[in-house]
């Protein structure tokens, strides 16, 4: 139950941050007590905004004792919400300093606020001096500061205070929105025996040194006050990033890969921080805060000033209204009780204020080029509408002309008059009746295009086969019509040994795979299996004026069908030829009765048994290749390998970059014909594994594993070591020889030997791995 905020003593000039749509205030005060040994404690209060009352209400509060010594002085240095590398989630962090009685040592403590609203110590360190100047709390969490020309930092991973091994004359601190190497320091290093200096960058996490000019040009390092990395990526090992920097020359500069792209003149001096505000479909804003309580917002798209404010205590960006986009919370100073005077806005229609005048914020008049951009946009939309209108008018004119000429021609025929047409009219006429064969064929073709080819058979595009470990895989790629879908698709194999008049039917197991829609290219590949009894609905019929693309191409649907059989019956018969038969049921339309659907058998061709045609030869050599052979190897591999689907759930922490973790395993390569699949090739055909990771939410995902059973257990063991402690794995379905009575797997303290030892126990019906960290059979 949330309560109104009443305590004036608690919220007098607090440190404030935003987290998950709430604003959290931190403050230090004397711990309650009756003796002289009362100490200091850190208190916090979480507030959430209520639209109806247009006010902030208390959602949670708490306290933690920082010092039990009465004479010790405790104060807050800085607070910020950053990503916790261990929990893989964003958490509020607050840095507290505890000064000794003689001011001879300074104890620093970095605390995080957990989801259960408890302050937990994260990093503690002692310094012989007090931090002066800018102090940064960055992702990790990492605390970074400057002292006597050096850059120092600490984090839970650093295990102590460390110093950047490069001496910078000027430096800029920032972080990349990447999974690794996020926190960086840019600076100018003077070269020995030279008058010039070079721009270097240093990643705090791994100590890697890089060329800093890919982020900021050399000339901007010494004048940059603060930066924000908007986007970053690594392409072939080279860092590519978009950066916004505020300089001491009252400029906001936009860089792309270290090159200046746009500049905006700032209205105030001494910028301190840059935040990005995502307003959804209206675009994004850059919110720049300055010393002396000034705030300025700039549109990202036009790089022009949007609004200005003054007398601002702090500015926070979050989804305070829970509407899915960002808003700015501006807290104004010169008030005893915090949040008595505030403004929530996104400058796009959302505005909630308390204690503020209802007048709009001060906005600078848009420059003339803004009007020009608006006029160009309106002109473009108007031109597009006029083009559509002209096309419709031309279509109506053509129809009216055809009707007039048809009526005139019919009147001439009835009156037995010879029609008189100009050369232009003769060229534009379309024959309605013609007895020559060419016109009949054209009319028949038009009829075939307009009427769904219900009676058309699937077209066989490719027939192939592979052999592996005592089994043969036969595959067929066929094209069907979406307007006449087929169901119950399967393959059968008939042997023709020449020794008897009747062919023998070989027992097979069929699978159906969907091929992408853009499959006119021979290198198209399958992405995932699907039910053979369902096909996508036919697309809506287009106007005849858009028939530049063939209707058959629009309605075409490509499917791959595979059949797996044992080699023993075939080898016992000697040299054989196998006839491949396609079985399916074709549905004329959606309203047909089931009694009208009859099974159809289509001869696809024959294959000669060749045990030298091994499976996945090309796939193992060059999985990056996009070719028919690689696609056929990939489909054959999906057909022979057992298939498991696991649902992975992490209720407390985000799962992290599982796909990146898989790709870093030895021998892991991406299959280009189906990029969502990764190939693990340890040694030999029996060690092959196909993996497909689908991220549902940051806390949930599905993992498709195609491999042998032993490999599946080994891979799950490695995966459990990477996943968070509270993570659980739930099998969704089984295939092949997979045990169907596995219920769930919970992360626990097991070793690979425990997993494999219990796997090799005879008759292994898995039930559960409980939180007691042992197997239950």
Automatic annotation (TrEMBL):
GO terms of biological process kind: interstrand cross-link repair; negative regulation of double-strand break repair via homologous recombination; positive regulation of double-strand break repair via homologous recombination; replication-born double-strand break repair via sister chromatid exchange
Segments of skewed composition (Low complexity): 522-535
GO cellular component: a single term: Fanconi anaemia nuclear complex
Coiled coil stretches, renumbered: none
Domain of life: Eukaryota
Chain segments annotated as transmembrane: none
Region: Disordered, residue numbers: 522-547
Protein known as: FA complementation group B
Species assigned in the record: Haplochromis burtoni (Burton's mouthbrooder)
């Amino acid at each position: 139950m949330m309560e109104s905020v009443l305590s004036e003593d608690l919220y007098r000039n607090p440190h404030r941050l935003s987290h998950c749509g709430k604003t959290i205030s931190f403050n230090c005060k004397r711990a309650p007590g009756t003796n002289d040994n009362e100490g200091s404690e850190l208190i916090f209060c979480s507030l959430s905004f209520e639209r109806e009352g247009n006010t902030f209400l208390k959602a949670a509060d708490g306290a933690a004792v920082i010092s039990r010594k009465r004479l010790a002085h405790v104060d807050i240095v800085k607070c910020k919400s950053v990503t916790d590398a261990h929990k893989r989630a964003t958490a509020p962090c607050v840095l507290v300093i505890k000064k000794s009685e003689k001011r001879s040592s300074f104890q620093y403590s970095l605390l995080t606020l957990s989801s259960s609203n408890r302050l937990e110590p994260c990093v503690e360190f002692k310094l012989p001096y007090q931090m002066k100047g800018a102090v940064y709390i960055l992702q990790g969490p990492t605390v970074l500061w400057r002292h006597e020309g050096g850059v120092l930092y600490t984090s839970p991973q650093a295990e102590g205070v460390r110093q950047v091994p490069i001496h910078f004359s000027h430096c800029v601190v920032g972080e990349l929105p990447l999974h690794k190497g996020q926190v960086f320091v840019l600076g100018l290093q003077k070269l020995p025996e030279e008058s010039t200096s070079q721009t270097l960058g240093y990643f705090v996490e791994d100590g890697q040194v890089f060329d800093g000019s890919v982020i900021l040009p050399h000339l901007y390092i010494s004048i940059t006050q603060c930066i924000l990395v908007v986007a970053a990526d690594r392409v072939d090992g080279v860092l590519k990033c978009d950066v916004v920097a505020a300089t001491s020359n009252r400029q906001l500069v936009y860089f792309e890969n270290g090159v200046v792209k746009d500049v905006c003149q700032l209205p105030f001096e001494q910028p301190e921080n840059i935040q990005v505000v995502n307003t959804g479909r209206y675009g994004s804003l850059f919110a720049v805060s300055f010393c002396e309580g000034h705030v300025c917002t700039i549109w990202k798209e036009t790089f022009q000033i949007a609004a200005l404010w003054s007398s601002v205590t702090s500015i926070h960006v979050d989804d305070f209204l829970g509407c899915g986009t960002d808003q700015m919370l501006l807290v104004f100073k010169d008030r005893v009780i915090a949040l008595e005077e505030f403004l929530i806005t996104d400058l796009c229609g959302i505005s909630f204020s308390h204690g503020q005048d209802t007048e709009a914020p001060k906005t600078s008049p848009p420059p003339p080029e803004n009007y020009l951009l608006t006029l160009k946009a309106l002109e473009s939309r108007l031109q597009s509408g006029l083009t559509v209108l002209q096309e419709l008018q031309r279509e109506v004119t053509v129809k009216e002309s055809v009707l007039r000429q048809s009526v005139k021609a019919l009147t001439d025929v009835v009156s037995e008059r010879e029609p008189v047409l100009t050369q232009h009219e003769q060229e534009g006429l379309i024959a309605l009746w013609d007895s020559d064969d060419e016109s009949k064929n054209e009319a028949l073709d038009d009829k075939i295009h307009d009427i769904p080819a219900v009676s058309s058979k699937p077209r066989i595009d490719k027939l192939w086969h592979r052999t592996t470990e005592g089994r043969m895989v036969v595959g067929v790629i066929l094209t069907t019509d979406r307007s006449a879908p087929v169901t119950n698709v399967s393959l059968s194999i008939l042997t023709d040994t020449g020794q008897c008049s009747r062919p023998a039917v070989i027992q097979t197991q069929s699978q159906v795979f969907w091929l992408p829609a853009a499959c006119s290219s021979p290198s198209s590949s399958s992405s995932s299996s699907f039910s053979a009894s369902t096909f996508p609905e036919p697309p809506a019929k287009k106007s005849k004026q858009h028939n530049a693309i063939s209707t058959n191409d629009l309605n075409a649907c490509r499917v791959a069908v595979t059949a797996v059989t044992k080699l023993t019956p075939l080898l016992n018969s000697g040299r054989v030829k196998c006839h491949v038969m396609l079985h399916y049921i074709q549905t004329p339309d959606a309203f047909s009765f089931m009694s009208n659907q009859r099974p159809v058998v289509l001869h696809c061709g024959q294959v000669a048994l060749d045990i030298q045609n091994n499976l996945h030869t090309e796939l193992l050599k060059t999985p990056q290749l996009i070719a028919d052979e690689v696609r056929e190897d990939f489909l054959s591999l999906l057909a022979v390998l057992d298939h498991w689907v696991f649902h992975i759930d992490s209720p407390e922490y985000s799962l992290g970059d599982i796909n990146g973790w898989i790709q870093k395993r030895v021998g892991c390569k991406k299959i280009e014909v189906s990029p969502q699949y990764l190939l693990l090739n340890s040694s030999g055909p029996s060690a092959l594994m196909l993996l497909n990771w689908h991220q549902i939410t940051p806390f949930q995902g599905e993992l498709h594993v195609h491999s042998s059973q032993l490999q599946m257990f080994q891979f799950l063991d490695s995966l459990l070591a990477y996943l968070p402690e509270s993570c659980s794995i739930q099998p969704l379905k089984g295939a092949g020889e997979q045990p169907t009575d596995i219920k769930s797997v919970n992360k626990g303290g097991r070793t690979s030997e425990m997993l494999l030892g219990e796997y090799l126990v005879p008759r292994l019906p898995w039930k559960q791995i409980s939180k007691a960290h042992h197997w239950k059979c």
